[in-house]
Amino acid sequence: MMKAEIQQVKQRFGIIGNTEALLRAIDVAIQVAPTDLSVLITGESGVGKESFPQIIHQYSRRKHGQYIAVNCGAIPEGTIDSELFGHEKGAFTGAIGERKGYFGEADGGTIFLDEVGELPMSTQARLLRVLESGEFMKVGSSKVQKTDVRVVAATNVNLTQAIADGRFREDLYYRLNTVPIQIPPLRERGDDVLLLFRKFSADFAEKYRMPAIQLTEDAKKELLAYSWPGNVRQLKNITEQISIIETNREISAAILQNYLPVQNTQRLPALMGTRESKGFESEREILYSVLFDMRQEVAELKKMVHNLMAERAGQVGQVGQMGTVVTTPVVTAHQPSVPAIIHTMQPTVCKDDDDIQDTEEYVEESPLSLDEVEKEMIRKALERHHGKRKSAAKDLNISERTLYRKIKEYGLD
């Protein structure tokens, strides 16, 4: 494809950027447009996927037909079939008249199914039939209808994972993904961020009749360094906020940082099990994984306190008039499979004549076994629910049968 034609498309559809991946996506959209192949557009939320179905429609032989965009994630599951395929009068409660549906309305044109990964499984089966044979039936009807519709779909969901999880039909995926188009996230588009910011600032300056905001060099670096989880949509919103709120038209990095949400890069502890498993073993693994992480944090905190007390003891020794501070060094038992859960703190008092110096001695209990902790958890749950085993089992997220077995095993009858 000639670069001049791609630039023409960019100008016509308001696409800003010169990244190779973006230009490649535009090129594929233009090339596939004259055919009737299904196209699947993938990319993160906010990258601008909605422009590409319009390119495909306008450069196809269907450009004079209907173009209908449907957000599949915004339609309730109970009405999605009716919205897409129509319904007969009286097909369900509230169906006071006949409805044609989007696939009927878009006959001879293009239908854009945004967030196609949110479609329920029953609707996916109907959609597959349309793609394979161009046939569908209205809700409440047994009459087969024909439609000639070009389907372009988009999703920010990992459909491969959705197939593995049983949430998306594999045969439908291959039907939709005849020609894939991947839209790159903003964080991978380099200097396109600056071009987009300049475009948005000019648009808002015209909209609100004020001078356009401009970035200092350090602000440009800040803009490029940010990861933009909300992509182009987030950049546009932030540009509008700054344009309205800031009286100074020159935006420094310090000002810009006030509008960039702080990104939490802290890594959370990985759980050994998953909540999807209802077995007690899985729940217990989750508990101990969390407790083990807590134990490490407590050990670090105790080490800090110990160092402070040692430093304090040194200072007291230099004075020579205060009572002697006695500290017991903290010893951490290295048993990662069975974390120590409870640590006690007992005050000790040492006297030197009439002066009294209080301190705390840290004593770490021996690590509890898995069975001991499990038994204690069951005992406390039974106490909380006054011996009602059904409520206790629900509280522990285990079956009553498992609870009965554990009660008998630990002699908690």
UniProtKB/TrEMBL annotation:
Keywords: ATP-binding, DNA-binding, Nucleotide-binding, Transcription, Transcription regulation. This is Sigma-54-dependent Fis family transcriptional regulator. Coiled coil: none annotated. Residues 15-244 form the Sigma-54 factor interaction domain. One of its GO terms (molecular function) is ATP binding. Pfam families: AAA_lid_14, HTH_8, Sigma54_activat. PANTHER family: SIGMA L-DEPENDENT TRANSCRIPTIONAL REGULATOR YQIR-RELATED, TRANSCRIPTIONAL REGULATORY PROTEIN. It comes from Bacteroides caecimuris. It comes from the Bacteria. One of its GO terms (biological process) is regulation of DNA-templated transcription.
